[in-house]
Amino acid sequence: MFSLFPAAGVVLVALLMRSLFQSLKRKNQRLRAEALAHKYGSTAHLDQSNGRPRFVVGNPQVGALPPLEQEAWKERDEARDEHYLEMDLILPEAFLQSEHMHSEHQILQRGTWIDHHDEPLNEHATMVSEEQIGSGVEVVEEEEEQDVDMDERLEREGGASGEVQISLAWDDFNDLDLHLFCPSGERIYFNNKLSDCGGILDVDMNVRPVSDTPVENVVWKENAPLGTYKVGVHFYKHHRRRRTKRICNYRLRVITHGRTKEYKGKIKYGQAMQMVTSYTLAELTKED
User: Would 7 be classed as within a structural domain?
Assistant: First the structure.
């Protein structure tokens, strides 16, 4: 019996060494990604009467990187996909058979899922938030910005506007979720709709499949904090409805002190949460 103790000690040391190695590897990946973001990121200045913020696009998209760095990003993305599976964050098939399910049952399902999976989702989101490179969305040209009636959808759902506004739109009955990582480190999402720094998720759609023109909206009406904002997109649930597939195209719009930038991308059901883009608000100085 006592001979088991040395073996158990060896196993414990091995587990600790593995955990330390993985932690060091993630740290090195994060530092490397931050260096790439600094090298390939772009900036844009804003003039504003009350205060002098600066709009800084803090991370490039993966397609803008050299081939070797794109491969490194793909390795990190595969690790996020594996982590997503390990955290058991893909809904079981029983949750997907919802076309004729009563809306109360669907909302109850989501509440039950949150009770059991919010902590793993938080852990996964923390891993995703370390990424400094965008997942490959394309910047929408000005002439294409009206292809999706974002303003009409927001007006229909009562979405507010403000100093900082991030809106997500897609064109089927799936349930995508907007995750906004605040400068404070707090995350705004469906289970934390109001942040301590004043941001609010005021539109959250398709918990049940009510619309094939949904929209989600996070807004700071005023006093948006300085710092880095990161935008994540999560494919929470695939609703089995006609013309609603497991790959979903979406549009993302970022408005900062009246300046608009739109992106388009796609995400597959079962894929890890995607870090779509980030930007930083900083105060201008005389040197700037």
Answer: no
